[in-house]
Automatic annotation (TrEMBL):
Signal peptide: 1-19
This protein's name: Outer membrane protein assembly factor BamB
Assembly information from the UniProt record: Part of the Bam complex.
Function: Part of the outer membrane protein assembly complex, which is involved in assembly and insertion of beta-barrel proteins into the outer membrane.
Gene3D superfamilies assigned: YVTN repeat-like/Quinoprotein amine dehydrogenase
GO terms (BP aspect): Gram-negative-bacterium-type cell outer membrane assembly; protein insertion into membrane
GO cellular component: cell outer membrane
Taxonomic path: Bacteria, Pseudomonadati, Pseudomonadota, Gammaproteobacteria, Pseudomonadales
InterPro entries (alphabetical): BamB, PQQ_b-propeller_rpt, PQQ_rpt_dom, Quinoprotein_ADH-like_sf, WD40/YVTN_repeat-like_dom_sf
Compartments where found: Cell outer membrane
Topology of the protein relative to the lipid bilayer: Lipid-anchor
UniProt KW keywords: Cell outer membrane, Lipoprotein, Membrane, Palmitate, Signal
Length: 383
């Protein structure tokens, strides 16, 4: 019963955080900001577009596609999984799992990995789409599983980390953790290297585990719960982690954005921030989509803000991604925005999906892939 109630609270909190402008109480919410005018400096070229089933669905899923080599893999909320050539958009295979997919997509080492609301992890053959194995875990999986070719690591909604054998799906180990009393609905995807697995927890901590035995190597608190109410004390790390040059980047809700030393977990720098969707890193800077709709560029060396763009307040921004010299992110009306990494000014805009663009853009080289809420998967380049 406790798990059921926690899930209900989490779902309600996610709605409260993400559905800005929909409150019916006596305090009138401010509407989302209107799109600002600007002089377009960058033109985006749509290389191809493909419809992937019903897309994200209505449960605030973050079904981000995955690229492995020349293939891109995407799944909709009902388990319609596609493999496409990432340059042409040609369909290579399709698999209909007929399952409520909520964690998607992980890919690598010949596997395509998905998690479900039923607490299952499914591995497909990347070349054919054939199911290789499925395993049951302790609760629903809301983020993509990750693999290093030896183990598949998944984070469940009840804040456990579970390692499965990559070849068979058999459980190798489980890391038990007590989740916070009240949490946002969601988890970040773990990161797995040859030796360590990293994850952000609902308690505001980042944990590093040995991939062979699941034993903690280090843990670091990024956010400290503050306030008198449980709502004020929510400090989930739901936006995932970013790894670059032996630095692990993390941001929490109602907490901080920080850079951690990969080997020790030592905090290299930190700054107050609140985000439930995540961050990106590039050119020695970190870019964060804040919960209030501000995009901020932060200098890693000084932990000070280089710039702050507040023009898209309350537009429910996606996590950002670095694309060429720009920062790309989506909003609730399905616009993909490009701002300069240097000063945060708007340089480009393209509407992807009128139902919204909730999932983080995926950037590989000179290509950007955006997966809209209704299922439109679009490949873009810069003209």
């Amino acid at each position: 019963m406790r798990d059921v109630m926690r899930w209900k609270y989490a779902a309600l909190l996610a709605l409260a955080v993400l559905a800005a402008g929909c409150s019916s109480n006596s305090k009138k919410e401010l509407p989302p900001a209107e799109l600002p005018d600007f002089t377009e400096e960058v033109e985006l070229k749509k290389e191809w577009s493909r419809s992937v089933g019903d897309g994200q669905g209505d449960s605030f899923n973050m079904l981000v596609p995955a690229v492995d080599g020349d293939q891109i893999f995407a799944s909709d909320v009902n388990g319609e999984v596609m493999a496409l050539n990432r340059f042409s958009g040609d369909k290579l295979w399709e698999q209909d799992l007929d399952l409520p997919v909520s964690g998607a997509v992980g890919a690598g080492y010949g596997l395509v990995l998905l998690g479900t609301l039923k607490g299952e992890v499914i591995a497909l053959d990347a070349a054919t789409g054939e199911e290789k194995w499925r395993s049951r875990v302790t609760s629903e999986v809301l983020a993509a599983p990750a693999t290093n070719g030896d183990v598949v690591v998944v984070q469940t909604q009840d804040d456990r980390l579970i390692a499965l054998d990559a070849a068979t799906g058999n459980q190798r180990w489980i890391y038990e953790n007590t989740p916070a009393v009240l949490t946002l609905r969601g988890t970040g995807a773990p990161i797995v290297t040859s030796r360590l697995a990293f994850a952000g927890l609902s308690s505001g901590k980042v944990i590093a585990l040995d991939t062979q035995r699941g034993l903690p190597v280090w843990e670091q608190r990024v956010a400290v719960p503050q306030g008198r109410s449980e709502l004020e004390r929510v400090v989930d790390i739901d936006g995932g982690l970013v790894l670059s040059d032996n630095v692990l980047y993390v941001v929490s809700y109602q907490g901080r954005v920080a850079g951690l030393d990969l080997e020790s977990g030592r905090i290299l720098w930190q700054r107050e921030a609140s985000s439930n969707v995540g961050l990106a890193q590039g050119l020695g800077n970190v870019y964060v989509s804040l919960a209030n709709g501000t995009i901020e560029g932060i200098d890693e060396r000084s932990a000070s803000a280089l710039w702050s763009n507040e023009a898209l307040a309350r537009r429910q921004l996606s996590a950002p991604e670095v694309f060429s010299s720009y920062v790309a992110f989506g909003d609730f009306e399905g616009y993909l925005h490009l701002v300069s990494q240097v000063d945060g000014r708007f340089v480009g805009r393209e509407r992807i999906d009128s139902d919204g663009l909730r999932a983080r853009p995926l950037v590989v080289g000179d290509w950007l892939y955006a997966f809209g809420n209704s299922g439109d998967l679009v490949a873009l380049t810069i003209r």
